[in-house]
Amino acid sequence: MSAPTPPRLLVVDDEPDLRTLYELTLLREGYDVESAETVEEAWAALQSRRFQLLITDMRLPDGTGLDLLRRLEDAGRGEKGIVITAYGSAENAVEALKAGAYDYLTKPVDLRQFRAVVASALGRTPSDGARAARPAEARHALPPRRALDRMVGDSVALQQVRSLVGKVARSMAPVLVHGESGTGKELVARAIHELSPRHAMPFVAVNCGAIPETLLEAEFFGYRRGAFTGAVEDREGFFQAAQGGTLFLDEIGDLPLAMQSKLLRAVQERAVRPLGAPAELAVNVRIVSATHKDLAAEVHAGRFRQDLFYRLNVIEIVVPPLRERLGDLPAIAAAVLERIAGDAGVSPPPVLSAEALAHLSRYAFPGNVRELENLLHRAVTLAGGSVVECRDLGLPEVAFADSAHLDLEMAVPDPGRAAATEVPLPSDLAAYLDQVEREILERALERHRYNRTAAGASLGLSLRQMRYRMARLGIGSGDD
Ligand SMILES: Nc1ncnc2c1ncn2[C@@H]1O[C@H](COP(=O)(O)OP(=O)(O)OP(=O)(O)O)[C@@H](O)[C@H]1O
Fold this sequence. Notes:
Oligomer: single chain
Number of helices: 22
Bound molecules: adenosine-5'-triphosphate
């Protein structure tokens, strides 16, 4: 997969408040963070995978941070270590450096310094706490007012989406965008924002499924200095960051019930109260949310609050899967190839051979446009020339085991027929299902910046189950 893997960090502290504070700070810097409370728990994590950096408290219930550093050294491991020592204990700090620590910090930890030391250990420049450093936002950053242009395709379905976007952009009404993963829901949300009177104000994209439950409130509403142990500076939340603009809540169906209540309150009151703040702050934010889940069914099952559902779903925009609007495929593929060529400074852009296009048109695209983009990126690299052929696409043959052929000319949106003919019966069900599972796991990992815990949780799997499945299917977890 093409997304760069963020550095993976292990935080070890037995004090929940401090652990939360470190995790929150590091997540905001775009790192992939895991945590442990004891030497043994940390060691178990270190044995099962590689990290780039270990950040550990000196005093732990079953030993010290130095024990961890020594074990790493004995095992010839390359992880750097930062040790957090009690205020005034110079010996401890020296001992830590002697034991091979990259650096040490003393309590109470100054977060600015904390970020700087971590960045330096990883050979990076700290983001200075800027929101722009959030990978989720940076990943999709587009020039202003470009989202609508970027939304390629003339199928009836897409024309309807475009016309709805134009209509709803003017109002403040909350919009719920519904569609499978990778269909372009975020593009729709950005287009609404860019066409709205708020276009000069911020667009803040939040993947609700990627934030650990314990950090949700602080992330959404911010916190004040002193709100919890170690909160030494004020931090704004997503609502404040989106002030005057649009807050895009992706994967809203993944929000835990407790947080749903708090969000409902913020939306109703148009005010938020940062953790530790004496009073509420008025916020003027337009909410656009998105989900691939059937939220009505989630309400029915008691997993989503009905009152919040009604609040967010004032206007619904449905983005159909790519396989139901295959007529858009040639134009989207051409636009994507143009973009890839533009990024690489290549001209003219490569084109798909007729057979390659026909081949693609028989594929079900479970990952929709995003999958098409990834596939074309890979294909262009393999093709190395100006024409992308069938063999460069690397589509699993199992997906085509049945020779059902769909003529491109006939590829008009027709959900009924699509379901019946475009997913051929496989000749090897086990291999086919493995391939489907592999793609789902890879997409979830990519979406959650290769954090297996979050990716697994988004699929209803524990970390253990996730690891097992990845190992079975031979999926690497980035750098280990
Ligand atoms: N109609 C389209 N034309 C061209 N590119 C598109 C189109 N729709 C989506 N894309 C591209 O496909 C990729 C996925 O789109 P986007 O992130 O908006 O999907 P999503 O539904 O929000 O995905 P997820 O549910 O996984 O968050 C983006 O790079 C986007 O630019």
